[in-house]
Amino acid sequence: MPRKAREKSKTGIYHVILRGTNRQTIFEDEKDKLKFTQTLRDYKEKSGYKLYAYCLMGNHIHLLLQEGKEELGTVMRRIGASYVYWYNWKYQRSGHLFQDRYKSEPVDHESYFLTVVRYIHQNPLKAGLVKDISDYKWCSYNEYVGKKRITDIDYTLNLISKDRKKAIESFKTFHQEISNDQCMEAESRRRFTDEQAIEEIKEICSIMNCQELQHFEPAIRNTFLKALKEQGLSTRQLERLTGISRMIILKA
């Protein structure tokens, strides 16, 4: 069946989700996240888009941006290709990292724009990664409250109030509210405790001990590693439980 055409935004503003293929991790460490934020900054200049919010999660990315000189599809291809080229070089791997088709939704109304901003910033909070949004380093929240780096904060804050100090305080209060905002979501990733992961490894690989996977023929071992990653086990978890190096798991 042909793919459904993307819905166009009247304002040129879109909420975008970029996901790892087969739900795989796309950021192994903080250097990876730093590289992605640098990529966002570099292509802001080249593509002319405005970035209103972002959040980097383990296996997906949220962006709220407005088209400039280039359309959204071109922007996302540029950003994705640049990061994947660097990631593959760093981890000595090849092939796709992101799903072929990013998700997007138009953001045409000011009220929904603010809802999306909060939704993006509350992702780490709702995922249980932090107890306060300000503690999460890899989203744009702190750029709004005094640590500006790459986000275009003026449009958002001016929607709240023309008085900048008042706008920032209202912005903080708005984000502290417990919300059930209904926005476009990334596919949920199943989370495993180590005990659950051990049982999953034993069942999928038909082994009695997770360490046995080290002794499989490389091609068979890599097939099982890929299947385990597709189930939702993280690279770090597989490395810890099987004793197989992270580089081998990433390349599988």
> Strand percentage, roughly?
5-15%
Task: Tell me roughly what share of residues is in helical segments.
Answer: 40-55%
What is the top-level CATH class of the largest domain?
Alpha Beta
CATH architecture of the largest domain: 2-Layer Sandwich
The H/E string reads EHEEHEHHHHHHHHH
Number of strands: 4
Mean pLDDT score, rounded? 88
How many helices? The count is 11
State the oligomer.
single chain
Q: Which regions are unreliable across 5 or more consecutive residues at pLDDT < 50?
A: none
Provide the structure class.
alpha+beta
State the domain count: 2
CATH superfamily of the largest domain: Transposase IS200-like
**Rg (C-alpha, Å):** 20 Å
Overall spatial form: elongated
For the largest sheet, list the strands in their spatial order.
2-3-1-4
| End-to-end Cα distance | 30 Å
Description:
This protein is of the alpha+beta class and 252 residues long. The chain is built from 11 helices and 4 strands; from the N terminus they run E-H-E-E-H-E-H-H-H-H-H-H-H-H-H. The mean pLDDT is 88.
